[in-house]
Specification:
mainly beta; 4 helices
């Protein structure tokens, strides 16, 4: 057995090594788990595009099966908060079996699985993303490890977000950075978690994220308290939006229509046309905000 075969064999997962507590289905997209056995494994299945898992007294592991109802490939992103415990996240993959003389043929085995390590988290993590294929579940494995350095109740919180990804985005990572079309602006206006008119107060870059501070001239709609007065005497509302740093957003002069959604608990920019451009098509919007 050569070194590659040896390493592959060491990574084969024996799922039966721990007792499975039971099937736990996230019908409401948000799960609350409570470990009563130290070496138990929770099987969690979800078809939701947005959701969360709150794992109190976190011991053992979670085997998460994500299978959104989407027509195209998708990207599943998550952030993890691991308190008083270390959480190891891996992706579960079919095991590659080599057959024939000299390994002349190979195939994927669903009976044996391998774990591909993704990230180890202690405290709050940054955003991590994995890709899923059309009509195929994405399997993630969360295993906790407690050391003598921790005191207190171990708690793990997970926020996840699934987005359908068109083929052109897969070919060009900057496709998601292009300006919104007229139809996309109209859809964003009617379906976003926040819609405001305002200007860019400041633009800051941090790691892979751009933070856009927005001074609001008119609040049209918001589902949560994204934009608010910093001081009671302020004449305007302020809020901070997020966008991928790769899009190269710079501070621009003038007034904009800002739309977006809450993603992984943070307000994320969707479309931001100049207000003058938006006013030319606003009458076509098939929705109305009080």
């Amino acid at each position: 057995m050569d070194i590659l075969q040896l390493l592959s064999a060491l990574l084969v997962v024996v799922i039966s090594r721990r007792p499975v507590v039971g099937q736990h289905t996230c019908d409401q997209c948000d799960c609350q788990l409570n470990s009563e056995e130290e070496h138990a494994v929770f099987n969690v299945k979800t078809h939701c595009n947005v959701g969360s898992i709150y794992w109190n007294t976190a011991y053992g592991a979670i085997r998460l099966e994500v299978q959104p109802v989407l027509r195209n490939s998708y990207k599943m992103c998550f952030v993890l908060d691991s308190q008083n415990i270390v959480t190891k996240v891996s992706q579960e993959l079919p095991h590659l079996v080599t057959e024939g003389d000299g390994g002349s043929s190979s195939s994927w085995s669903q009976d044996r699985l391998t774990l591909q390590p993704l990230v180890t988290v202690q405290g709050k993590s940054r955003e991590h993303c994995v890709w899923g294929r059309t009509k195929q579940p994405l399997m993630l494995y969360f295993e906790v490890e407690r050391t003598n350095n921790f005191t207190g109740i171990p708690v793990v919180s997970l926020l996840y977000d699934v987005q359908e990804v068109a083929d052109d985005v897969l070919l060009d990572p900057l496709e998601e950075c292009r300006p919104c079309s007229q139809d996309e602006m109209l859809e964003a206006y009617c379906s976003s978690d926040f819609v405001v008119m305002g200007s860019m107060h400041q633009v800051r870059h941090e790691d892979e994220v751009t933070h856009i501070d927005v001074a609001v001239a008119q609040l049209i709609y918001q589902t949560s308290d994204v934009f608010r007065r910093v001081h009671r005497s302020d004449d305007f509302l302020l809020g901070t939006l997020r966008a991928p740093r790769k899009c190269g957003i710079r501070q621009g002069k003038g007034d904009f229509l800002f739309t977006g959604r809450m993603r992984l608990g943070m307000p994320t920019l969707r479309c931001a046309p100049f207000l003058e451009r938006w006013q030319k098509i606003a009458a076509l919007a098939e929705c109305h905000y009080n």
